[in-house]
Specification:
The complex is a heterotrimer of chains A (633), B (98) and C (259). With 633 residues, chain A is mainly alpha-helical. Helix content of chain A is 72%, strand content 3%. Chain A contains 25 helices and two strands. Chain A has helices at residues 12-15, 19-34, 42-65, 94-117, 124-143, 147-165, 172-203, 208-215, 220-238, 245-249, 255-264, 269-276, 278-281, 287-308, 313-332, 336-366, 384-398, 404-419, 421-446, 463-484, 488-497, 511-533, 545-551, 556-601, 609-630; strands spanning 74-82, 86-92. Chain A has a two-stranded antiparallel ribbon with strand order 1-2. In chain A, a hairpin with a 3-residue loop joins strand 1 and strand 2. Chain A is globular. Chain B has one domain: Helix Hairpins, CATH 1.10.287.3510. Chain B contains three helices and no strands. Chain B has helices spanning 2-22, 26-51, 55-85. Chain C has 259 residues and is mainly alpha-helical. Among the domains of chain C are: 1-77, Four Helix Bundle (Hemerythrin (Met), subunit A) (Up-down Bundle); 129-157; 195-259, no CATH class. Chain C has eight helices and no strands. Chain C has helices at 2-23, 27-47, 51-76, 91-112, 129-140, 142-163, 174-188, 231-237. The chains are: A mainly alpha (633), B mainly alpha (98), C mainly alpha (259). Chains B and C meet through helix 1, helix 2 and helix 3 of B and helix 1, helix 2, helix 3, helix 4 and helix 5 of C.
């Protein structure tokens, strides 16, 4: 089924849909411009703006439900910039509304959580300002109706990410990590920009409607090129191979940042881009889609392997995020049959990953900001609420039956298996590894003997931090079933991105599903044996070659350094040398030459009348000679 | 015949020029300048005769007058310089150097 | 024919004199050589139907301008002779080269021109050379004439201004000079009297004749040292007139007291 036509603005909540973007933006502006004066109520104001944006999103959602399915794509024109070429407007349709609800919903919960988490921080107000800025930019990204406005939102979230990762500016590691994230993202942005340029030259417009309408008439080569460039942009933003190196370093930021940006929303922008552009550029067949699936599978395996070797709880969760987004990319590359599964996994992942990150933040809060899991142990007695919500999130992510992950991840694996068996089995292996490292994380943290440092007294977090955990845990439980059973999400998203005519049947029990469960159980059992039953060593053991491979992030950083950083530095040095010797040499040499020449030339002025007379006489002789030769003067 | 006079004039002019460049005594330099002026006069008179035009002689006449005036002022300057500097060498007035 | 001979003789003479002017060491010799050149040129003017100019050349140029040169030479230092060493590097070489080149160029240029027979000034000089000159000067070139007169007046004034010396202090009177002489006598024993005058003899009373001291020897103070160069020869010549057998008394020289 093809996507529906985009209809006009019907007024009502959709008509003021731009409030979703403007309210958090206003929050950011007030808090940043107000400065220290707003410190006392800044955090409440930030939360208020996020909640207000959620309310508008909910109203828009309900208004959209009031229309017939074929009429659910609405364009809201805001500002005519260059008529016919660049107009600013919003596209309110099932896909963008789903994202908007996720962003504002999870975002508001994280805002509330941050009141407690950042209560001791001197710059809490600035934190909320940046969070609001992020929400505004992300909403612009998903609500835009043309690629240029999407790009503005894209850059905006990149900026917010940079500001938030480097929030504690006094930490050199944080500043470096922020820079790294920004630079690696830039590579992806370059891809997206070139794709937009090609779109503009080929189609004459960058609005979604126009581009998708004219894409059919364009040559396959151009379409593939645009698709691959869009994929490059998505890889940068979503930390997929080869642009994945920034995500683990981004854990330097405060934990709410990791939860909101690097788990639930920003890193999913890449998946949004692929799904939104799917109708024209990633239709399931063809080179671009194939590359998307390969990138997805490679990343899900890489992320899982990295996650097994990390002792830092946040870095392990970051590896997990990388891996889960790999699943989403894999699904998105399968074409219309996979879009809905990708988005379903995205939404439920948003909930349970945010849950896990906020839980980790709660643990860190209790353990004096310690992140090394080797210093945890036996915390389930002291942090009951955190433990229960974290455990629910853990079950969801490994795909325990009936929780969210079971429905969404299995959906992806089964769909992949029908498409391409090799990729399917690799995804199953990835699920097994997921089972292992997530179990390892839970057992090291909450079970076993206490391996704490001196003077650490773990205590449960305050209500303002535990209530969001509870709400997110509830979401982790029910969302998967809600979205997948009965193909609810696929039918809902049909008008937006298209869907196969025949809806897939959901098999409660299938061979592939059973195999997956078996591997997951194996992984969890192995983790229990190693980390639940045995003593966890205080210092990380040397391990094998594979362990080192995983600990060094699969040598991703080393590769980047060798391939790009070193040559880049040589190039810079060469340019500096050339500038100093070549260009400066030229300019200085010119000056020196003139100075030297004038120094020599001035000796003509000897002061003696007779030498001057000589020059006059010689000149006259030459003139006479010239006269003689020329004949007439 | 005319050519001979002209070549003589050129010769005297060149010798006067060399003298200006070689001699250091200011008065002798001045005398060489006078020699050059005389050579020019000879050329003028020769051409006056060649073309049958009296104006060549008129010009020579004026040259003589101007040369006389020039000698008056020039020698006065030399005398003044000599009084202050006690030297009549042309090379001594070399302050306008680099 | 006559003109040709005149020309060649005078040409050689003037070129030789010009070379002498440039290369002689003594400035007075150079002045005299210049005089020779000017006289030769005067004759050449006369040969070329310019009698007035010839006369003006002799009277004004040689007579007035050259004498002016000689006067200034006398003031400035008649015995100042140029050393032959050239101080500026390469000056001589380039000067000769330039001069020679210049002369060659001009000679070649003139040599290439083909002149018709000279028209001569016979037609123009019908009323006489001077009247035709006068007619040209006072009608067609009267403006230049007036300007040149102004120039002459300005030159005369300029020379007066330049050569004038302001007295910084009052002119010393005869009394002051006498007083100064006696003060010097008191301090250093210098002779306060004036210098002796030249000798006056029956057949020679020029100022280059020395006076005789009481003992018959020559007073060196009585004659200018430049002119005194000839004193020895003159004395020998005229030894008959003077009694030189007596032993000469010691000369009273300047600065010595007679004891």
């Amino acid at each position: 089924m093809e996507p529906a036509e985009i209809l006009s603005n019907p007024g009502g909540a959709i008509g003021v849909g731009w409030l979703m973007i403007v309210l958090p933006l206003l929050g950011a502006a007030v808090l940043l411009l107000g400065g220290r004066r707003t410190d006392k109520w800044g955090h409440y104001f930030g939360v208020l703006m996020a909640l207000a944006s959620f309310v508008v999103a909910a109203l828009v959602f309900f208004q959209l439900l009031g229309f017939a399915p074929g009429e659910r794509r609405r364009g809201v024109s805001l500002y005519e910039f260059i008529p016919g070429v660049a107009d600013m407007g919003l596209l309110i349709d099932p896909l963008s509304v789903s994202f908007a609800l996720l962003i504002t919903g999870v975002g508001s919960l994280i805002h509330i959580y941050s009141i407690g988490y950042m209560s001791h921080d001197h710059d809490r107000r600035r934190f909320f300002a940046y969070l609001n800025l992020f929400v505004a930019a992300m909403l612009l990204l998903v609500l835009a109706d043309n690629y240029v406005a999407l790009f503005v939102g894209w850059e905006g979230v990149g900026l917010a990410s940079y500001l938030l990762i480097g929030f504690w500016q006094f930490k050199p590691t944080a500043a470096t990590a922020a820079k790294k994230a920004f630079v690696v993202n830039r590579v992806g942005d370059f891809g997206l920009l070139v794709a937009i340029f090609i779109m503009f030259t080929s189609f004459g417009s960058v609005a979604f409607g126009e581009v998708f309408a004219k894409a059919g008439a364009e040559s396959q080569g151009t379409i593939t090129a645009i698709g691959l460039l869009l994929l490059l942009g998505a890889c940068g933003k979503s930390a997929q191979l080869p642009l994945q190196s920034w995500l683990l370093d981004a854990m330097e930021g405060p934990t709410p940042v990791s939860a909101l940006i690097h788990a639930a929303t920003m890193v999913t922008a890449g998946v949004y881009l692929v799904v939104r552009s799917g109708a024209a550029f990633f239709p399931g067949e063809g080179t671009a889609s194939l590359v998307v699936t390969i990138v997805g599978v490679a990343t899900l395996l890489a992320g899982a392997i990295i996650g097994t070797a990390k002792d830092d709880i946040k870095k392990a969760l970051a590896g997990s995020t990388m891996s889960q987004i790999g699943y989403m990319m894999l699904a998105a590359g399968l074409g219309p049959v996979g879009y809905a599964f990708a988005i379903a996994h995205l939404i439920s992942h948003g909930f349970f990953k945010a849950n896990l990150f906020l839980g980790a933040g709660s643990v860190m809060h209790a353990m004096n900001d310690q992140v090394d899991m080797r210093k945890y142990g036996g915390l389930r007695k002291y942090l009951p609420i955190t433990f229960i919500t974290f455990f629910i999130g853990y079950l969801a992510i490994i795909g325990f039956p009936l929780l969210s992950g079971y429905f969404t991840k299995d959906g992806i694996i089964e769909t992949t298996m029908e498409h391409n068996a090799i990729l399917g089995w690799l995804a199953v292996v990835g699920a097994g590894i997921t089972g292992f490292y997530m179990s390892r994380l839970v057992f090291m943290t909450f079970f076993g003997k206490a391996r704490w440092d001196e003077g650490v007294k773990p205590h449960e977090s305050p209500a303002v931090m535990t209530w969001p955990l509870i709400l997110l845990a509830i979401g982790s439980v029910v969302l998967g079933a809600f979205l997948i059973v009965g193909n609810r999400l696929m039918i809902f998203l049909g008008p937006a991105v298209g869907r196969p005519e025949e809806l897939p049947e959901f098999h409660a029990v299938s061979p592939v599903g059973l195999a997956t469960l078996a591997l997951v159980a194996l992984g969890a059992a192995y983790a229990w044996l190693k980390y639940g039953r045995q003593e966890v060593p205080a210092v990380a053991p040397r391990g094998s070659v594979l362990t080192t491979f995983a600990r060094r992030d699969l040598y991703g950083d080393a590769l980047n350094e060798a391939l790009f950083m070193r040559p880049g530095q040589w190039l810079t040095r060469l340019a500096v040398w050339f500038d100093n010797r070549g260009i400066d040499g030229l300019v200085n040499g010119l000056a020196a030459g003139i100075g030297g020449t004038s120094g020599r030339l001035r000796r003509i002025q000897t002061g003696y009348v007779r030498s001057y007379a000589l020059s006059i006489f010689v000149g006259a002789a030459i003139l006479a000679g010239a006269w003689f030769v020329v004949g007439t003067l | 015949m005319t050519t001979h006079y002209l070549i003589l004039s050129a010769l005297l002019f060149a010798i006067g020029g060399i003298g200006v460049l070689i001699r250091r005594n200011a008065i002798v330099v001045f005398m060489c300048v006078e020699l050059m002026l005389n050579a020019c006069n000879l050329a003028f008179v020769t051409f006056a005769r060649q073309h049958g035009n009296i104006e060549g002689q008129v010009i020579a006449f004026f040259v003589m007058i101007v040369a006389a005036a020039e000698v008056v002022v020039g020698l006065a300057i030399i005398v003044t310089i000599f009084r202050t500097r006690r030297s009549a060498s042309v090379d001594d007035a070399s302050l306008l150097k680099y | 024919m006559g003109e040709t001979v005149t020309f060649w003789v005078l040409a050689v003479a003037s070129v030789a004199a010009a070379l002498g002017l440039v290369f002689s060491r003594k400035a007075v010799y150079s002045a005299l050589m210049l005089g020779v050149v000017m006289l030769s040129l005067a004759v050449l003017y006369a040969v070329q139907d310019a009698p007035f100019l010839a006369a003006v050349q002799i009277i004004v140029y040689t007579g007035a301008v050259m004498m002016l040169f000689l006067f200034v030479l006398m003031l400035v230092g008649v015995d100042s002779s140029d050393s032959l060493v050239e101080t500026l590097r390469g000056q001589r070489f380039w000067a000769f080269l330039a001069g020679l080149g210049f002369a060659v160029l001009l000679a070649l240029g003139f040599g290439n021109v083909v002149f018709a027979a000279p028209t001569g000034l016979a037609a123009v000089n019908q009323a006489g050379n001077v009247p035709s000159l006068a007619e040209a000067i006072f009608t067609r070139y009267v403006f230049a004439f007036e300007v040149t007169s102004a120039l002459l007046i300005t030159a005369a004034l300029g020379a007066m201004v330049l050569a004038h010396r302001e007295r910084a202090e009052a002119k010393a009177t005869q009394k002051d000079l006498s007083r100064a002489r006696f003060v010097a006598f008191g301090e250093t024993g210098a002779n306060p009297a004036s210098l002796p005058g030249p000798g006056t003899y029956a057949r020679h009373n020029a100022i280059d004749m020395p006076a005789l001291l009481p003992d018959g020897s020559i007073s060196q103070l009585s004659v200018n040292r430049h002119l005194a160069r000839h004193t020895e020869e003159l004395l020998e010549e005229r030894s008959g007139e003077l009694d030189a057998s007596e032993t000469p008394v010691a000369e009273i020289t300047e600065g010595e007291n007679s004891k």
